[in-house]
């Protein structure tokens, strides 16, 4: 991909990426903005200290329970668009 000079150029370039490439780009951008990629975090006094998807209040146990109950991945992604 060539150098991008404006936000509009970036939007056009991103539109041409595959889903996998967009996911990698998102992780890269998140890492640059936060100093690290937000993975799984435990924060005292947030959701009772349960492990959550980084920088969200989405507990890992809830996602796993939904998976075990047969909730489709696509449905989880629709309900939690911050997840990739």
What do you see in this structure?
The chain is built from four helices and two strands; from the N terminus they run H-H-E-E-H-H. It has helices at residues 7-15, 19-34, 60-68, 73-79, and strands at residues 40-41, 52-53. Helices cover 49% and strands 5% of the residues. The protein has a two-stranded antiparallel ribbon. By secondary structure, the protein is mainly alpha-helical.
Label this structure with key terms.
5% strand; 84 residues; mainly alpha; flat; two-stranded antiparallel ribbon; 2 strands
Q: Please give the largest β-sheet.
A: 2 strands, antiparallel
Give the % helix.
Answer: 40-55%
Order of helices and strands: HHEEHH
Q: What would you call the structural class?
A: mainly alpha
Please give the radius of gyration in angstroms.
16 Å
Question: How many distinct helices?
Answer: 4
Low-pLDDT stretches are none
- Average pLDDT across residues? 85
Kindly report how far apart the N and C termini lie. 22 Å
Taken as a percent bin, the fraction of beta residues is: under 5%
Query: What is the overall shape?
Result: flat
Extended strand count: 2
Major β-sheet strand ordering: 1-2
In a few lines, what is going on in this structure?
The protein is mostly helical and 84 residues long. 49% of the residues lie in helices and 5% in strands.
Write the layout of secondary structure elements.
Layout: H1 7-15, H2 19-34, E1 40-41, E2 52-53, H3 60-68, H4 73-79
Antiparallel strand pairs: 1-2
């Amino acid at each position: 991909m060539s150098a991008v000079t404006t936000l509009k150029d970036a939007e056009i370039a991103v539109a041409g990426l595959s889903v996998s490439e967009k996911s990698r780009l998102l992780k890269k951008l998140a890492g640059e903005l936060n100093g690290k990629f937000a993975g799984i975090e435990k924060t005292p006094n947030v959701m009772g200290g349960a492990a959550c998807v980084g920088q969200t209040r989405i507990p890992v146990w809830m996602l796993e329970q939904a998976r075990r109950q047969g909730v489709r991945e696509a449905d989880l992604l629709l309900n939690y668009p911050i997840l990739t």
